[in-house]
Design a protein that fits this description.
86 residues, 3 helices, 0% strand, mainly alpha, elongated
């Protein structure tokens, strides 16, 4: 792993966490950043990264962050909202 790849990885993880915090604030959904949900989101990011690596042989960090954000918006946030009403 080159130094540029290491920095790209760090930026990916920090931007993913920042996105969750921004959505938590925007939607007034504090459960989004609770430890259980943060773990789920982090695991999904790693799974998306692994899938990209298998399919493309390399990581496009911008594209990966976009895929993660799409998943958060379309699947994860609705799931957290649904579970918070139980």
């Amino acid at each position: 792993m080159s130094i540029n790849e290491i920095w790209a990885e760090i930026r990916l993880r920090s931007n993913a966490k920042l996105f969750l915090v921004e959505k938590k604030t925007e939607l007034e959904l504090p459960l989004l950043i609770e430890s259980e949900n943060t773990s789920i989101a982090n695991n999904k990011l790693l799974l998306l990264k692994e899938k990209m690596l298998e399919e493309e042989g390399k990581i496009n960090y911008e594209q990966l962050l976009g895929q993660f954000k799409n998943w958060v918006l379309k699947e994860f946030i609705p799931s957290v909202k649904k579970n918070s009403k139980k």
